[in-house]
Amino acid sequence: MTERHTGGSGLPDLSGASWRTSSFSQDGSDCVQAAFLSDGGVALRHSRDPGGSVLVYTRREWDAFLKGAKDGEFDLA
Asked: Which of 33, 34, 39, 59 could make an S-S bridge to 19, C-beta 3.0–4.6 Å?
């Protein structure tokens, strides 16, 4: 995972990113938004601070996270 801050040099261009909010979000104001990038990566940001920090994952990192979530790797119990 690479933390990226918008507005600096050498950062991915996220100006045309299509940000998605989970349908499980009740009002859409306090959640994580995801954008799928043209290079296969995935960018994440907080919906309350769309101009703030953005986390960018490679496709491989994202796939590993999804597999872990599906397998219960992050379950508290």
From this structure: 33
> Residue written as tokens 């994440």?
44
Domain count across the chain: 1
* 70: CB partners within 8 A, 6+ apart: none
Half-sphere exposure of 5 (CA within 13 A, CB side): 2
Can you read off the two tokens belonging to residue 11?
A: 């950062």
H or E element, residue 60? helix 59-70
Domain-embedded: residue 75 = no
The amino acid at residue 30 is: D
Domain ranges, residue 27: 2-8+16-70
Is residue 72 within 8 Å of residue 53, measured between CB atoms?
no
Report yes or no on 46 lying in a domain.
yes
52 inside domain: yes
